[in-house]
Amino acid sequence: MIRVRLSGQLKDWAGGLSRTDLDPCPDVLSVVRALDARFPGLGGRIVDDQERIRPHVNIFVNSENSKELGKERAKVGDGDTVHILPAVSGG
């Protein structure tokens, strides 16, 4: 299984859940697709129409930023934890 942790407003799109488990997925984009299948609309908050991670969203596989691992194609393995964090801004 893959554990997914959702932060910020993304929890609202997942019925208030801050974490959920998914069947194994090969990469970050597959994780987002699986989340969107379970929680319709959530995927569009994470990736754009070209299925690229939105600039204001950070995704970590365990403790490594997916931007350093191949972005949407960053590998995810059984037992990994994927953290999806929208940026917080304001003034």
Structure description:
The structure is a single chain. The chain has about 90 residues and is α+β, with helices and mostly antiparallel strands. The protein has helices at about 10-15, 30-40, 40-45, 65-70, and strands spanning about 1-5, 20, 55-60, 65, 80-85. It has a 5-stranded mixed sheet with strand order 2-1-5-3-4. The longest helix is centred in the middle third of the chain and has 11 residues, at about 30-40. The protein is globular.
Summarize this, please?
This protein is α+β, with helices and mostly antiparallel strands and 91 residues long. Helix content is 26%, strand content 24%. The longest helix is centred in the middle third of the chain and has 11 residues, at 28-38.
How do the strands and helices of this protein lay out in sequence?
Elements: E1 2-6, H1 10-13, E2 19-22, H2 28-38, H3 42-46, E3 57-61, E4 64-65, H4 66-69, E5 81-86
Parallel strand pairs: 1-5
Antiparallel strand pairs: 1-2, 3-4, 3-5
Can you give keywords for this protein?
alpha+beta, 91 residues, Ubiquitin-like (UB roll)
Q: Describe the main β-sheet briefly.
A: 5 strands, mixed
The CATH topology comes to Ubiquitin-like (UB roll)
Q: So, CATH architecture? A: Roll
The largest beta-sheet arranges its strands as 2-1-5-3-4
Strand content: 15-25%
Helix content: 25-40%
Secondary-structure element string: EHEHHEEHE
- Class by SSE composition: alpha+beta
The CATH superfamily appears as: Beta-grasp domain
**Tell me, what is the CATH class?**
Alpha Beta
Q: Could you tell me the mean pLDDT?
A: 94
Q: What is the number of domains?
A: 1
Q: Which parts are unreliable, with pLDDT below 50 for 5 consecutive residues or more?
A: none
